[in-house]
Amino acid sequence: MSGEALLVFDDGLTAYDFGRGHPMSPIRVELTIKLARELGVLDQLKIVPAPVADDALLGTVHTAEYIAAVKRAGADPDESDPVHGLGTSDTYCFPHMHDVSARIAGASVEAARAVWEGDVLHAVNIAGGLHHAMPNQASGFCVYNDPAIAIQWLLDHGAERIAYVDVDVHHGDGVQTVFYNDPRVLTVSLHESPTTLFPGTGSAGETGGPDAEGTAVNVALPPGTGDAGWLRAFHAVVPDVVKAFRPQVLVTQHGCDSHVEDPLAHLTKTIDGQRAAYVALHDLAHQVTGGKWIATGGGGYAIIDVVPRAWTHLLAIVAGSPIDPATAVPEGWREEVQLRFGRVAPVRMTDGRDASYVDWSSGYNPDTWLDRAINATREASFPLLGLDPSY
């Protein structure tokens, strides 16, 4: 097993572009790569270009009818196809939509292949994490569901137990749907409550299909949850369920739209809390899977102040060389932001917050929405995995 860590990236991935004014701007990926390069993070990663997934690979998760619809939409972006979720108010059609979406899927599969076949221990596709796409429908800015395709590739190549942990502010509904009745895949999602945020799913009671009870775990957090509450919830649920499942590989989705400055959601995390989550997932991979870890990006719409810093931390952690939060943001990067966007960029790789939390072992407080949410997940999911929710 090589100790190298892998980034699957080329500039073609930034062609995933819904156009001017759409929240999911490829600028966020471009600025992340530039910031990581200036901080020397990319020097610590093996970088390979993204292959394009063919129809057979896409078809392990998506229907042939849907793949054909995506191709038509990319050839004629002025035509909408609401039956397949294309050309809707959130997932616009754009030129060559199929090609770049297939490239993103191919990048996540290449990351999975490199880890599974022992080329590297960790691998990341920062442009991936399109977790809302369904087998026959686009949704929530997501065309092809690259995490699900990567997981299915792992299953088709011999993996028997895979854990997927999703820390995007939105429920990882597409990945959960694909594997809801597959006992080989544990899906865990920490997200804002479905009562207040798209896609309106991910309650604690969603625990898996009849052949896979206990393999879907959902923590639905109240709006306003910040670093301390989020980390309390994470550590009260995620390590226990992942360890109980005993996966061979850990796949993670790192949407950073849980940040207080994100315009599309209502949690109040900071860069420091997000970094702490990435460290915890890295450590969990080493505790449970021998370090076999595949990471993707995801949502995140504060495209200058938040996403580049958060994902540069992620890339550094994947590389095994975490960045000190007090590190200064390089002046060259800040000058580019000022020149291109007329914005004053952050000065440091931190929001200056203490990412500490009170552990669940301190006791359950039923007077708080947060603790009621955590407890609901533990009571719904823990017994199905052979765990005691009351400890």
TrEMBL record:
Pathway: Ketone degradation; acetoin degradation. The keyword Acetylation does not apply. One of its GO terms (biological process) is acetoin catabolic process. GO terms for molecular function: histone deacetylase activity. Keywords: Acetoin catabolism. Residues 22-316 form the Histone deacetylase domain. PANTHER family: HISTONE DEACETYLASE HDAC1, HISTONE DEACETYLASE HDAC1-RELATED. Belongs to the histone deacetylase family. This is Acetoin utilization protein AcuC. The lineage of its organism: Bacteria, Bacillati, Actinomycetota, Actinomycetes, Propionibacteriales.
